[in-house]
Write a structure and sequence with these properties.
This protein is an alpha/beta fold. It is built from 13 helices and ten strands. The strands form two sheets. Strands 6-5-4-7-8-10-9 form a seven-stranded mixed sheet, sandwiched between helices. The chain has a three-stranded antiparallel sheet with strand order 1-3-2. The N and C termini lie far apart (78 Å). Keywords: Methyltransferase, S-adenosyl-L-methionine, Transferase.
């Protein structure tokens, strides 16, 4: 008689991981179909189906599934948005993230076979896209949606809590793209002025957004490549959020350039992810960067890499505190001072 094998664990997590793909597909499908535009007020599945032109029976199944994962509420047969979807998935709201979510999807593998191909063959960095200024401009504008959804506001609040903040006169948002981090930070200060530094396509977007928020008198832009070009000087504050990940082997020289561009008593703030436990944790960071790393280039950093570079060039009094990011969990906010 053959006995069944003894087991000491359960396979639940494997199936949770597999069905996680379905949740992502549900979100993307709902955004593509503009479901949440039609559930601002309580609405039946038949009415939603009529509005978006879908099969009534399958629409009800789909809406039930959206309710099961917290993207809709269902009461007395009617569906309505949750606070989350009402804030971030209704089109035409300033905090809408639908376009940004679809942009992020372009970096994800469509199938497991696509991921397997990248693992086998290595990354295929698209140099043509890197040289396509229109694509970079469009990407920057989509990333501005993410910034408006609360990340820039939270960053500005954190920087405003620095003890030196009141004495700042000029700041640099290095690799600032759309410029909203700089705009939000300058708006927290009564008189400080700001400069957004990035490539030409990105600062084109920043100029438009600076105009949108009526900040032309206090915000300006500077186009260039921070790896090779001057970044200006006379700054009291330099901010680099998710910027130094892309410095690669030039990290130390870029941090040295930042040190030189600061006034004495100036402050450098780097906000970045940081991997630990031999680059296997935190899970959200490792998994969040995986598709980009496999398909293009690995820009993840070990937790100590940027602080070590800051110490090496002369920054003193380094402080590290957690800074929440909706993507990747808590990042590190490292503050260094030029004494």
């Amino acid at each position: 008689m053959k006995r069944l094998p003894k087991t000491t664990t359960v396979p639940d997590k494997l199936f949770d991981l597999q069905f996680g793909v379905v949740r992502g597909q549900m979100l993307t499908s709902a955004v593509d179909l503009r479901v949440f535009n039609h559930t601002v007020e309580p609405t039946t599945s038949n009415d939603v189906a009529g509005s978006i032109g879908t099969h009534p029976g399958n629409t009800e199944l789909f809406l039930n599934a959206l309710a099961s994962i917290g993207l809709l509420e269902k009461k007395d047969g009617a569906y309505r948005n949750t606070e989350l979807t009402d804030a971030f998935l209704v089109e035409d709201k300033e905090t809408s993230l639908g376009g940004y979510l679809k942009f992020i999807e372009t970096f994800l593998f469509k199938t497991a076979d696509d991921m397997k191909t990248a693992i086998v063959n290595g990354p295929s960095f698209n140099e043509q896209w890197d040289a396509d200024e229109e694509a970079q401009y469009n990407a920057t504008m989509l990333m501005s949606d993410f910034a408006r959804s609360g990340t820039s506001q939270a960053l500005a609040k954190a920087i405003a809590e620095l003890p030196e903040f009141g004495g700042f006169a000029k700041m640099l948002d290095l690799g600032g793209g759309h410029g909203l981090d700089g705009i939000a930070t300058v708006q927290m200060h009564p008189s400080m002025e700001g400069v957004v530094f990035d490539k030409a396509a990105a600062v084109r977007a920043a100029k438009e957004i600076i105009h949108e928020y009526g900040m032309e008198d206090r915000m300006s832009v500077l186009a260039g490549d921070y790896l090779t070009d001057p970044i200006g000087s006379g700054y009291d504050l330099i901010l680099a959020k998710g910027t130094l990940n892309f410095a690669g082997s030039n990290l130390e020289s870029v941090v040295q350039k930042i040190f030189g561009a600061l006034n004495k008593g100036g402050v450098f703030v780097s906000i970045h992810d940081g991997l630990t436990e031999e680059r296997t944790k935190p899970e959200a960071m490792v998994v969040g960067w995986l598709s980009f790393g496999l398909g293009s280039m690995d820009v993840s950093l070990a937790k100590e890499r940027i602080p070590d570079a800051m110490t090496a060039v002369g920054f003193l009094g380094l402080e590290t505190r957690p800074h929440h990011s909706p993507i990747g969990g808590d990042w590190d906010m490292v503050v260094g001072r030029k004494v």
